[in-house]
Write a structure and sequence with these properties.
Helices cover about 40% and strands about 25% of the residues. It is an alpha/beta fold. It folds into four domains: about 40-120 and about 220-265 and about 545-569, Periplasmic binding protein-like II (D-Maltodextrin-Binding Protein, domain 2); about 120-220, Periplasmic binding protein-like II (D-Maltodextrin-Binding Protein, domain 2), CATH 3.40.190.10; about 275-360 and about 465-485, D-Maltodextrin-Binding Protein, domain 2 (3-Layer(aba) Sandwich), CATH 3.40.190; about 365-465 and about 505-530, 3-Layer(aba) Sandwich (D-Maltodextrin-Binding Protein, domain 2), CATH 3.40.190. α1 packs across α8 and α9 packs across α18. The protein is elongated.
Length: about 575
């Protein structure tokens, strides 16, 4: 059984917590000079999420996220930085328009209105190294002294669940961590994993146990005052325009430990416009065209039920949109007269002409390609090895055109099915067959094509896009938002399910031994999906960082210095 690579994601921590004098530092985004700036309050000692640099500038992951938000809504933003309690006071008093992120509590809900979840948060208990030797579980805390930030949810939680504990309430993070280092407390209750970053920055790792005890997990939300409906709508609109890829790129820049990154797998609220919701309300069923025999991408199983990656993907989309998914045979697409009988196709066969009957979503997945050749032929390890060869392809929405561009010295031959192409390779009419790795490998194994060998071509990849009927342009943007909302882990789970080889016959152990190499290629194709995905996000991260640096460089240094002097002086 092929084991899939699973990325470990811990809960990031967003709000680090508590109070002290509000240090007012402001910067302006350069988007719409004529519009009034929106003031966003963030924590000043919450590295790497939000903190004040040595030059007095607000910096961090959340700072960049809210700068990006300003670009999306076309409004300049400025930041005021302070300790936790002061950040709450700044919003409550109207000195700030938006609070960058907080937990929802009954008390806060009386005066604040919250936006969509912006990050998962974990409240935890981290003991000193000495206390950790005698306390192995939170139930053993007794009357231990634990430091919390004033006004934080951790303070309320510890009072309610551990009434015997002696709480030391402080106003800022540095004081909290130093209390343990100075031997005044047995531990801290804070947000994790961001607290680890502060401990690293202060050089206090030797004073703390390596792992915190989890106490609670809740989502963190941005907030505005309850009477600011206009701002709440703008907040939601801007956050809905920030794609998951953009969030992941920012997180890669600021969160160095991959285990502490969470935005790739965080469930996001699907924020549709009123017009999109109205359209969706009148289209409660989506007819999905699927192929009958393209394992494991799209196929009809032995019970007559459509299954595979395409069907599973659309089922997830249906749950997000709360619409029914009705599978239909892709044969209906061949009927060019009469009313349409299919609304979407996850892996459309053939490349429609420009302005044809289909529109397409943004690419939502990069799938590696594989090549099948006769086992007696030279092993193909790169696209260059196919120069001068005839290469069969079962075209799917641009795949044939992509291969013609990537393999200019090869003769691309379109075939009607994967099996037809593999049979042509076996018969010597075609030199090689290139297709989506998962389907090529599956066919070679399950059709017992022992005279063929499969090689992965990670340099080549298919950009999967969902085809949408051209008279439904509204659905394209709805689908883009939905596909972007699917967590990477959920998408990976779909791939994992169908990457495990299923031998559709009585077990033949000799055959199993013979296909061991193909199974190894299977694992390679799965890892390639993740590597391609990560490489794509890394490229976006680099492009995003260049854009951010260019934006900063375009701002007037003198104006920035003046703003800082006015607000920090």
């Amino acid at each position: 059984m092929v084991k899939f690579f699973h990325t470990a994601f811990c809960c990031l921590l967003l709000l680090a917590l508590a109070p002290a004098n509000l240090a007012l530092c402001a910067t302006d985004s350069s988007t719409a000079a004529s519009a009034d700036p929106i003031t966003i309050v963030c924590m000043k000692d919450n590295e790497p999420l939000s903190f004040v640099s040595k030059t007095g500038e607000p910096v961090g992951l959340m700072i960049d996220l809210w700068r990006l938000w300003g670009e999306k809504v076309g409004r300049p933003v400025r930041f005021i930085m302070g300790d936790w309690q002061d950040s709450l006071d700044a919003l409550h008093s109207g000195r700030a328009d938006i609070h960058f992120s907080m937990y929802i509590t009954p008390d806060r809900a009386r005066w604040a209105k919250f936006g969509p979840a912006i990050s998962p948060g974990m409240g935890g208990l981290l003991l000193s190294t000495s206390a950790g030797q005698r306390i192995t579980d939170p139930s053993q805390l007794g009357d231990a002294t634990i430091v919390v930030l004033e006004g934080s949810l951790q303070e309320d939680y510890m009072r309610e669940h551990f009434p015997r504990v002696q709480l030391m309430v402080v106003r800022n993070g540095a004081e909290m961590f130093m209390s343990v280092a100075n031997g005044l407390a047995d531990g801290i209750s804070s947000n994790f994993p961001s607290a680890y970053g502060t401990i690293d920055r202060l050089g206090l790792n030797s004073f703390f146990m390596p792992q915190a005890f989890p106490l609670f997990s809740r989502n963190l939300h941005p907030a505005v005052l309850r009477n600011r409906d206009d701002l709440a709508r703008l907040m939601d609109e801007g956050l809905s325009r920030i794609s998951r890829a953009e969030m992941v790129a920012l997180e890669e820049r600021w969160v160095r430990n991959p285990a502490h990154r969470v935005w790739g797998d965080m469930p996001r609220s699907l924020l549709l416009t009123p017009a999109e919701r109205e359209w969706l309300a009148s289209h409660q069923t989506l007819r999905v065209a699927l192929e009958d025999d393209w394992h494991p991408i799209e196929f009809m199983d032995s019970e007559g039920t459509y299954n595979g990656i395409g069907m599973n993907l659309m089922q997830v989309v249906g749950r997000y949109l709360n619409v029914a998914i009705q599978p239909v045979s892709s044969n209906v697409l061949k009927e060019t007269t009469g009313p349409r009988r299919a609304d979407v196709e996850p892996f459309l066969e053939g490349t429609p002409p420009e302005g044809g009957p289909w529109l397409f979503t943004n690419p939502f997945l990069q799938l590696p390609l594989a090549v099948a050749t006769l086992d007696s032929e030279r092993l193909v390890t790169s696209p260059g090895d196919l120069a001068g060869k005839s290469v069969a392809v079962h075209d799917h929405a641009g795949l044939a055109g992509y291969l013609r561009a990537q393999l200019p010295r090869s003769k691309i031959v379109e075939v009607s099915s994967l099996i037809e192409g593999l049979s042509a390779v076996q018969g010597g009419q075609i030199d090689a067959m290139v297709g989506i790795a998962l389907s090529v490998e599956y066919a070679v194994v399950n059709k017992n094509l022992r005279d063929l060998r499969v090689g992965l071509l990670p340099q080549l990849q298919y950009s999967a896009r969902v085809a949408v009927r051209s008279d439904w342009p509204q659905l394209v943007e709805i689908m883009n938002k939905t596909l972007d909302n699917i967590p990477h882990e959920q998408m990976a789970a779909i791939m994992k399910r169908w990457a495990n080889l299923r031998i559709e016959r009585a077990m033949n152990w000799m055959l199993v031994l013979q296909i061991g190499g193909v199974a190894a290629v299977f694992l390679g194709s799965l890892l390639a999906v993740i590597l391609i995905w990560n490489r794509k996000l890394a490229q976006e991260s680099a492009e995003r960082q260049k854009a951010l640096e260019a934006a900063r460089a375009s701002a007037s240094p003198m104006a920035a210095q003046t703003a800082i002097a006015q607000h920090c002086g």
